[in-house]
């Protein structure tokens, strides 16, 4: 299969990989895909592959069949797989062979015939099956891969190549690159490209995770390092069987479902499900197992559940922690009930409550939510008919009554198969049915909310209801409360804003289990039920019977909008934090993945293993979007505590860690370094730096002096307090560095100051409580010797340097040495004086230098004082003019106003408890702080400080811009603003010339902002709810979009553009604003400046040869867009009618009326011709009526109105048949002989009175005519003689029902008038007697209508036949009684009783009455066959009278012949002797009896009888048969003679066998000897010329049997020696006998000297030969040679 793979690629790649691994760039265990599950997993990678090779498709890539061995190391072959045939890889143990599954003709995805082992060298593997992270391209099409559960190409590569590519791909991915495998035609190339990090996506397959670049950039300079890996495929592969939906991995690696104990306890018997009726009948597993589960496709339901996230929506939903999320109120099941009432749905359906969110936390153990140990093989359910449970179930009809929605809204909201939904839920935005689309969130637009409709607010009300514990209800949210709650958000732990509520919608169906119980299951409940009960995938189980239903349920809830559960949280200034909140249970993946579902297994796997959420839809208040910055940016903020000196600056360093900017801008001065920037910040300062750099640019921020750093917080990066740095991870990063807020601890109060030295202070003044230095204070030094000195301390309480060693010091600095008493005379300001006196001795040493003294420390108690400081909370600037009322011990001491630095200072006040209450902010921009602060002032406690902060009133700034050009602001746009709680507005405001509305000093709370007017632009009438808190200064950018445009493109059905078609375009519901436009310039209409909305587009005129399309199309025009509608005009249809008879014969000449059903006044009359056809063109489409109005004479007019629908661009055909009128045949026959009776008249009458006529039978006794269908009565009217009309009506009349195409016959049977024959016979021989006389009379029996009562037929004589035919005597006979009397016997006979007989004869009855006479003085001679004793007729005898003479001679009295009875009689003989001699016998007998003599006495009664017997002649039968098969042989010739040589027959003794192989020769005299000899054998048989003889016996057939030996036959076959199957035509052979004579005639086919040639089948067929044959090849055909060793 790999035809052109270059020979050195293996060496090149192997060398490259060796270098990579030696350098430590690859781990020894080859970069397999990540797997989070340490247990057994069929997808866990093996070897170098990312996915396990088990289950992947492979092919035989060699030029010869691939040997399949029974064992891994043995040589016993199990099968052979032809070239290019696919099979399945089952196992790779790392050796030189692979275990595979195969079928005899290759693997086709079904059950495997067997398994075995094949050599890897000849195996091609489907690369995407084992290396899914590689990017694949092909000029073919992708297929859905059940292995990867997504669409992918099928590209084969050798197994060795695949292992090398795995290592190369690891290296590429580690460098942000990827391999691309491209197939173009049969060529496959491999390149390395740079991956797009934004398009790097992760995929998970049953816990195995791998990444894949979905976009990349080609390198400018081609990298030829992989060019040697290209190869050509010898064959085309159109699909991989791992893409077969019927193939699952469990075919190769079966997985078992782990059952864990359910969490059931005495206090929680329902396992946490909240079910009420664990033992309900519907909850148990059905007892019947051989009946399918069934479903009502029109009885579905939706389950709505309200979820609260108390701390804001979270990323990970795979937990059942109440404080993370929980259900609010009661879930609601809304049933599309298909006519059922809500009460019937509650009572006749078993309901469950294991809502979807719980399954996420359970994962693969989710099946336990359906049952517990208290229910054997059952599931939990609840009683929906009791108490509050009724509120859990409703119907769409009941919901409509309570919420007021329209019929269309009801169908769109709740009917999963709604035809009113343009393209079904799968492609629609189901959310929009409940209100306006969710708005976007951008940095300048904090929150925009649905304007929920009344139905949604009602839904929230129902969902927030709860059970009062006594079977009653606690009301849910009101409309205002629902709107407020739905738009509510909270601050998370990081201060970010997050919404709180979601509504989860689940699809469900109503199923009837094998026991007939109806159950309501959501998709997840179906799966949980099936897994919990360990159902196998066979009929009678839920998952098997309803597999397609589960797929449909998953698809019903396909979300039309992307990212319905995606959220970007915001920080306090309304800017996205950079975090993307996307639930890990795959809500977003629902959109892209659900369309790939081909069968149930992926649904179950993704719900319970990967925790994806099929069959769910999410209602979110918002659809969050975050616009990625076009350039990276960094914001650094400095925060400090109160103990940090004001104005202190802090230095920061920015270090580039990934990439470098080409330029930057900053809001403060920055300095460039070799690899970054430096800047300084004071407390509460922020610097923003915008970089001009690649989006992948990243940096690191550090504070140069981090000794007092207490925290680092930020977004868009990682804060590391250990390393004292912040590292960016996204394009937008913000960080705050905070320094410590506590001052350095003071020294212990009792520690004395350090001993002063000359020039240092010797006295300190300190606060008695804080030990802080305070001053100034005045001290007195008193000495009885030196007098009194006064000195002042400085502001820090230090006595400035004094000296006692230099008298020249300036005044106030010198004091004489000596001993002094030191006392305070003036205390520091706001301090109480002290009476303390301390002693100090000031001395000089021997050298006149001062001896160190002191220092002295004096402490004072501060006077009582109170300082109030007022700051703005946001700016921390002092606020002047704020009025406080101050209370001492509950009594007001006055109101004071902050001045200077926002202070109020009260000194010299009495100790007590002081309270400060703010009463006036002093301006309109701040919020009065109604809280108060208290402080206890105690004597000596000094001045206490109270610090107050004021929040500014919030404000909002609305900016109106053009959506197509955001730099263009829109003035004069009007907005209506009101506080939700009614504290503000409603008021209307208009944007100024800059497109702005700037509102400040607003009350805090939620505001509703609605746009009212914006001239020239589409009004954005969505209702926004904006939450304003203290200090908020929210800025919102509102975009308005220009009015939409509309383009219509009109084409013919064949795609040609159509100019000249006119359309009316109008907003729906406002026909007054319609416009008419006609297509031109290529079939187009373009209209701009329309109002947004849904428009009706209707064609009003078209071209003459096209159909006017009257459909009213609806198109939605969206602001800022030109919507396009493409329509085609169809050509007018044609109509063909084909008319045939019922037997299929075409009928020309039938006329039809063809008319449009909607307009019967317009019609066409057309007549069939040219084979029974009518063809009409250019008709209007629609339903037409086709009615037959005239037909052929013998056919029934079909008055049925046929309907045929004519479709554009088509010729519709109608085939009709005409039924023939029924054919009525009347037949008149003799009732006994069945002979026809002509000229009978019958009356034919229709019972409905529409027809009556007389019909007469013809010569054949019949008469026929086609009549209309109906019931007919036929009555015999007259009949010709000798027949008579029956006397009874029932015998004369018949009734018949005739239908279309019937051919029915009525047979009337008449009897002839009776026939009476009188027969006179010889009483001895039975022979007739002539001239006997009889008298005949008749008496009627009433059988014949016209018969008289009696008739006398007179006297008559018997004729030569001994008969009198009474019916021929001239008078007609009738049925009745006849009396016959013999009047006189014939001469020579005497009467014999009875002489009178009576006989009754019926119609058409003939009777013969026999009378006997006895002969007088008679001789009777009998002739018979001597063998059979049968009489012989025709023998001739001579009779002589012998009496009165002597000797021979005598008188011949006559010659007589035996009659049919073999006898004759001679009567009235005179007495004497008579000689009877036979003269001749008949042809079949031999005369062999001597003459006989009889004596007659002469008496009248004397009768003498003589008997003569003759021997019969014999026959010869010759039989000719095949000696082998014993089959008879015809056409064999024989020569036959008697023993005297006399030839038999009339052909000189020649006889030939007939088709039965016989010859029969009759009438041979007994005793004759016959000789027979074969003279000619049948073709292909050997002649048997040995004669046989036979002697004929009287009355018998003698048989002679001759047998012939068949000659032999042989067939020669000539094939090609290449495949031993291809026949060769035209090869010459010479055929001879062993003696050298040629075989020159085969079956009558002459050859040329025994030379014959093979036919088209490569054969020479020889038959009819005997002996040894020799075949010699004498000539071949082009392209072949004669094998000299085997030519003869």
Give a structural overview.
It contains 15 helices and 114 strands. A hairpin with a 7-residue loop joins strand 58 and strand 59 (987-990). The chain is elongated and about 240 Å long.
What is the CA-based Rg, rounded? 63 Å
Q: In percent, how helical is the residue content?
A: under 10%
Task: State the end-to-end CA separation.
Answer: 42 Å
Largest sheet: 6 strands, antiparallel
Shape: elongated
Tally the beta strands.
114
Q: Detail the poorly predicted runs.
A: 1-45, 105-111, 243-282, 373-378, 421-428, 437-450, 559-568, 580-599, 623-628, 742-757
Topology:
Elements: H1 9-22, E1 34-35, E2 57-60, E3 66-69, E4 77-81, E5 86-92, E6 97-102, E7 114-119, E8 123-126, H2 127-130, E9 135-138, E10 143-145, E11 150-152, E12 156-158, H3 159-174, E13 177-184, E14 187-195, E15 200-205, E16 208-213, E17 216-217, E18 231-232, E19 294-308, E20 326-336, H4 342-348, H5 356-362, E21 393-395, H6 396-403, H7 407-414, H8 454-463, E22 466-467, E23 473-474, H9 479-486, E24 489-491, E25 497-499, E26 501-512, E27 518-522, H10 523-532, H11 542-545, H12 547-556, E28 566-567, E29 581-582, H13 589-593, H14 600-608, E30 616-619, E31 633-639, E32 649-658, E33 663-666, E34 671-673, E35 676-682, E36 686-692, E37 698-703, E38 709-715, E39 717-720, E40 725-728, E41 732-739, E42 763-767, E43 778-783, E44 787-792, E45 818-826, E46 837-844, E47 850-851, E48 856-860, E49 862-872, E50 883-888, E51 891-897, E52 903-907, E53 912-920, E54 932-937, E55 941-950, E56 955-962, E57 965-969, E58 974-979, E59 987-990, E60 996-999, E61 1005-1013, E62 1024-1028, E63 1033-1040, E64 1045-1052, E65 1062-1067, E66 1075-1078, ...
Parallel strand pairs: 9-13, 20-21, 31-41, 42-48, 49-55, 56-63, 64-70, 71-77, 78-84, 85-92, 93-100, 101-107
Antiparallel strand pairs: 1-16, 2-5, 2-8, 3-4, 5-6, 6-7, 8-12, 10-11, 13-14, 14-17, 14-18, 15-16, 19-20, 19-26, 22-23, 24-25, 26-27, 26-30, 28-29, 31-36, 32-35, 32-37, 33-36, 34-35, 37-40, 38-41, 39-40, 43-44, 43-45, 45-46, 46-47, 49-52, 50-51, 50-53, 53-54, 56-57, 56-60, 58-59, 58-61, 61-62, ...
């Amino acid at each position: 299969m790999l035809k052109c793979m270059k020979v050195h690629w293996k060496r090149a790649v192997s060398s490259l990989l060796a270098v990579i691994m030696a350098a430590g760039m690859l781990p020894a265990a080859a970069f397999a895909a990540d797997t989070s599950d340490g247990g057994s997993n069929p997808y866990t990678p093996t070897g170098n592959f990312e996915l396990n090779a088990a289950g992947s498709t492979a092919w035989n890539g060699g030029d010869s069949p691939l040997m399949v061995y029974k064992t891994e190391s043995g040589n016993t072959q199990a099968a052979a797989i032809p070239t290019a045939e696919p099979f399945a890889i089952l196992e790779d143990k790392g050796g030189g062979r692979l275990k595979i599954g195969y079928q005899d003709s290759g693997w086709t995805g079904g059950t495997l015939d067997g398994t075995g082992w094949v050599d890897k060298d000849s195996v091609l593997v489907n690369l995407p099956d084992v290396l899914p992270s590689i990017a694949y391209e092909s000029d073919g099409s992708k297929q859905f891969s059940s292995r990867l559960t997504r669409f992918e190409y099928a590209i084969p590569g050798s197994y060795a190549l695949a292992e090398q590519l795995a290592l190369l791909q690891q290296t590429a991915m580690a460098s942000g690159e990827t391999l691309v495998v491209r197939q173009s035609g049969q060529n496959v190339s491999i390149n390395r490209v740079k991956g797009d990090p934004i398009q790097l996506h992760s995929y998970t397959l049953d816990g195995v995770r791998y990444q894949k670049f979905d976009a990349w950039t080609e390198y400018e300079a081609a990298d030829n390092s992989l060019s040697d890996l290209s190869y050509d495929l010898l064959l085309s592969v159109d699909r991989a069987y791992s893409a077969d939906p019927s193939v699952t991995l469990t075919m190769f690696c079966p997985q078992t479902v782990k059952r864990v104990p359910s969490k059931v306890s005495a206090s929680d018997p329902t396992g946490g499900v909240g079910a009420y009726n664990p033992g309900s009948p519907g909850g148990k597993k059905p007892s019947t197992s051989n009946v399918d589960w069934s479903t009502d496709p029109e009885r579905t339901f939706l389950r709505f559940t309200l979820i609260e996230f108390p701390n804001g929506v979270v990323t990970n939903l795979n937990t059942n922690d109440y404080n993370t999320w929980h259900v609010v109120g009661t879930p609601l099941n809304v049933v599309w009930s298909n006519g059922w009432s809500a009460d019937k749905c509650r009572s006749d359906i078993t309901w469950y409550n294991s809502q979807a969110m719980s399954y996420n936390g359970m994962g693969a153990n989710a099946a336990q939510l359906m049952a517990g140990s208290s229910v054997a093989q059952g599931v939990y359910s609840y009683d929906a008919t009791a108490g509050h449970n009724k509120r859990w179930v409703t119907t769409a009809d009941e919901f409509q009554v309570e919420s007021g929605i329209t019929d269309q809204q009801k169908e769109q909201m709740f009917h999963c198969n709604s035809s009113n939904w343009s393209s079904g839920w799968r492609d629609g935005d189901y959310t929009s049915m409940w209100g306006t689309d969710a708005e976007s969130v951008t940095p300048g637009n904090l929150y925009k909310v649905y304007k929920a409709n009344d139905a949604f607010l009602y839904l929230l009300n129902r969902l927030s209801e709860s059970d009062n514990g006594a079977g009653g209800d606690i009301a849910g949210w009101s409309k205002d409360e629902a709107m407020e709650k739905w738009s509510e958000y909270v601050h998370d732990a990081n201060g970010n804003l997050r919404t709180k509520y979601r509504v989860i919608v689940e699809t469900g169906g109503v199923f009837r289990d094998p026991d007939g119980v109806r159950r309501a299951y959501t998709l997840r409940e179906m799966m949980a039920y099936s897994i919990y009960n360990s159902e196998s995938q066979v009929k009678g189980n839920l998952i098997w019977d309803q597999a397609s239903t589960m797929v449909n349920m998953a698809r019903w809830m396909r979300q039309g909008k992307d990212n319905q559960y995606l959220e970007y949280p915001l920080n306090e200034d309304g800017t996205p934090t950079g975090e993307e909140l996307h639930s890990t249970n795959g809500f977003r993946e629902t959109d892209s993945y659900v369309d790939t579902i081909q069968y149930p297994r992926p649904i179950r796997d993704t719900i319970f293993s990967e925790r994806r959420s099929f069959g769910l839809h999410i209602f979110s208040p918002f659809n969050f979007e975050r616009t990625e910055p076009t350039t990276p940016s960094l914001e650094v903020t400095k925060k400090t505590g109160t103990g940090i000196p004001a104005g202190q600056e802090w230095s920061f360093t920015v270090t580039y860690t990934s990439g470098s900017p080409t330029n930057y801008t900053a809001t403060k001065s920055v300095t460039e370094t070799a690899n970054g920037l430096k800047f300084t910040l004071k407390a509460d300062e922020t610097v923003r730096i915008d970089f001009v750099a690649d989006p992948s640019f990243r940096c690191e921020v550090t504070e140069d002096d981090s000794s007092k750093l207490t925290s680092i917080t930020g977004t868009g990066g990682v804060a590391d307090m250990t390393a004292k740095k912040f590292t960016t991870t996204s394009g937008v990063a913000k960080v705050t560095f905070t320094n410590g807020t506590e001052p350095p601890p003071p020294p212990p109060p009792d520690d004395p100051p350090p001993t002063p030295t000359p020039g240092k202070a010797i006295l300190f003044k300190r606060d008695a409580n804080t030990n802080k230095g305070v001053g100034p204070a005045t001290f007195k030094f008193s000495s009885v010797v030196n007098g009194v000195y006064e000195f002042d301390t400085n502001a820090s309480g230090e006595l400035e340097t004094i000296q006692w060693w230099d008298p020249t010091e300036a005044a106030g600095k010198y004091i004489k040495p000596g001993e002094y008493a030191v006392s305070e005379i003036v205390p520091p300001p706001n301090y109480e004086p002290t009476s303390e006196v301390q002693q100090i001795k000031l001395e000089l040493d021997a050298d006149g230098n001062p001896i160190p003294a002191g220092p002295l420390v004096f402490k004072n108690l501060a006077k009582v004082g109170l300082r109030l400081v007022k700051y703005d909370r946001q700016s921390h600037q002092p606020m002047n003019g704020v009025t406080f009322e101050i209370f001492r011990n509950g009594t007001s001491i006055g109101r004071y106003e902050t001045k200077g630095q926002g202070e109020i200072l009260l000194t010299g006040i009495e100790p007590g408890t002081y309270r400060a209450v703010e009463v006036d902010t002093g301006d309109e921009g701040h919020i009065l702080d109604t809280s108060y602060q208290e402080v206890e002032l105690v004597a000596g406690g000094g001045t206490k400080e109270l610090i107050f902060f004021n929040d500014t009133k919030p404000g909002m700034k609305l900016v109106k811009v053009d959506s197509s050009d955001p730099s263009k602001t829109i003035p004069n746009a009007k907005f209506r603003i009101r506080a939700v709680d009614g504290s503000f507005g409603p008021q209307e405001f208009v944007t100024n010339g800059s497109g702005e509305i700037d509102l400040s000093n607003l009350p805090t709370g939620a505001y509703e902002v609605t746009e009212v007017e914006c001239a020239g632009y589409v009004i954005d009438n969505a209702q926004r709810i904006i939450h304003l808190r203290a200090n908020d200064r929210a800025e919102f950018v509102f975009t308005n979009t220009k009015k939409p445009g509309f383009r219509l493109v009109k084409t013919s059905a064949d795609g040609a553009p159509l100019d000249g078609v006119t359309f009316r375009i109008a907003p729906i519901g406002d026909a007054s604003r319609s416009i008419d436009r006609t297509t031109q310039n290529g079939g187009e209409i373009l209209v701009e400046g329309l109002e947004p909305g849904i428009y009706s587009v209707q064609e009003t005129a078209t071209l003459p040869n096209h159909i006017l399309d009257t459909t009213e199309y609806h198109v939605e025009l969206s602001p800022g867009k030109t919507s396009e509608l493409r329509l085609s005009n169809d050509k007018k249809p044609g109509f063909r009618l084909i008319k045939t008879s019922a037997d299929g014969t075409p009928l020309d000449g039938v006329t039809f009326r063809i008319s449009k059903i909607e307009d019967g006044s317009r019609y066409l009359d057309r007549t069939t011709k040219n084979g029974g056809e009518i063809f009409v063109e250019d008709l209007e489409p629609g339903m037409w009526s086709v009615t037959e109005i005239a037909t052929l004479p013998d056919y029934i007019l079909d008055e049925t109105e046929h309907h045929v629908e004519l479709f554009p661009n088509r010729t519709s055909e109608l085939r009709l048949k005409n039924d023939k009128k029924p054919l009525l045949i009347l037949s008149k026959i003799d009732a006994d002989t069945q002979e026809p009776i002509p000229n009978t008249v019958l009356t034919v009458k229709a019972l409905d009175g529409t027809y009556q006529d007389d019909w007469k039978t013809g010569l054949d006794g019949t008469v026929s005519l086609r009549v209309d269908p109906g019931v007919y009565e036929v009555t015999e009217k007259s009949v010709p003689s000798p027949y008579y009309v029956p006397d009874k009506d029932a015998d004369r009349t018949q009734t018949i029902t005739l239908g279309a195409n019937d051919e029915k016959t009525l047979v009337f049977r008449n009897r002839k008038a009776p026939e009476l024959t009188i027969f006179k016979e010889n009483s001895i021989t039975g022979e007739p007697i002539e001239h006997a006389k009889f008298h005949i009379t008749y008496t009627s029996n009433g059988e014949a209508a016209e018969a008289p009562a009696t008739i006398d037929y007179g006297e008559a004589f018997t004729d030569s036949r001994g008969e009198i035919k009474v019916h021929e005597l001239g008078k007609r006979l009738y049925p009745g009684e006849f009396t016959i009397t013999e009047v006189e016997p014939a001469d020579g006979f005497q009467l014999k009783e009875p002489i009178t007989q009576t006989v009754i004869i019926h119609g058409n009855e003939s009777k013969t009455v026999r009378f006997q006479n006895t002969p007088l003085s008679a001789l009777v001679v009998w002739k018979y066959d001597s063998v059979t004793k049968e009489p012989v007729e025709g023998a001739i005898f001579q009779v002589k009278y012998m009496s009165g003479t002597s000797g021979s001679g005598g008188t011949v009295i006559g010659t007589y012949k035996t009659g049919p009875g073999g006898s004759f009689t001679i009567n009235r003989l005179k007495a004497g002797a008579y000689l009877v001699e036979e003269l001749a016998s008949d042809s079949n007998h031999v005369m062999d009896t001597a003459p006989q003599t009889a004596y007659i006495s002469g008496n009248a009664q004397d009768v003498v009888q003589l008997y003569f017997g003759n021997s019969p002649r014999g026959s010869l039968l010759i039989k000719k048969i095949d000696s082998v098969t014993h089959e008879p042989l015809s056409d064999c010739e024989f020569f036959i003679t008697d023993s005297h040589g006399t030839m038999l027959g009339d052909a000189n003794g020649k006889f030939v066998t007939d088709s039965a192989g016989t010859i029969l020769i009759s009438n041979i005299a007994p005793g004759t000897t016959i000789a027979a000899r074969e003279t000619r054998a049948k073709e292909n048989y050997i002649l048997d010329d040995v004669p046989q003889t036979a002697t004929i016996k009287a009355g018998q057939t003698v048989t002679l049997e001759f047998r012939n030996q068949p000659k032999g036959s042989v067939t020669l076959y000539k094939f090609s020696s290449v495949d031993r199957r291809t026949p060769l035509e035209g090869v010459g052979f010479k055929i001879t006998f062993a003696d050298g004579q040629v075989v020159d005639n085969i079956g009558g086919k002459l050859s040329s000297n025994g030379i014959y040639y093979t036919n088209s089948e490569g054969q020479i067929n020889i038959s009819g030969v005997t002996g040894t044959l020799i075949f010699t090849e004498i000539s071949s055909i082009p392209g072949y040679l004669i094998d000299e060793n085997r030519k003869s």
